[in-house]
Amino acid sequence: AQSVAQPEDQVNVAEGNPLTVKCTYSVSGNPYLFWYVQYPNRGLQFLLKYITGDNLVKGSYGFEAEFNKSQTSFHLKKPSALVSDSALYFCAVRDDNAGNMLTFGGGTRLMVKP
Amino acid sequence: NAGVTQTPKFRILKIGQSMTLQCTQDMNHNYMYWYRQDPGMGLKLIYYSVGAGITDKGEVPNGYNVSRSTTEDFPLRLELAAPSQTSVYFCASSAGRMTHEQFFGPGTRLTVL
Fold it and tell me: Which residues from A are below 8 Å from B2, CB to CB?
């Protein structure tokens, strides 16, 4: 069975500082990994994905994520946080052995303070 | 493009009542999904569809039904509402199955009293 863990319920960062939101996964086959962001009272918006190839993936709004197969991690990063980045972030995984389901982590709330 | 639209935005139901949550997408996506999001939790897949006329159960299908008569529409039916179905419901669509990102609607906040 596939699973995703986001170990931090909340991450606090000062504006201008780098940010990291952690994600680890478990699959039996090859992972397809996704990050989504949710602003208050809105649906989820796609940020970036890892399917294959380069371990460093660049996405929307200056975000990037690094796929680490040995550590089964896919941490979301940004070099310089903005107050407007404050939102709820979800990591998701699909196992290429597991059919149609996309499994979401529990979410991490990012708070960027001025 | 409007993307994925959902109606209604909010609804309060009494126990035992029925309702249909509407979902429409204008991106000609074959794949559509219904999720529920409970407070402090991630999303759980209720049902999904890989094309018109084809639906399948997700992780938490009990108490729900779906149909997919057209590519654009994927309504979710609650037949006998229960307090455990109080949640925020999201519809999503995608162009492909494994590697494609999903596009989400704005959600329906449902309360069952």
Answer: none
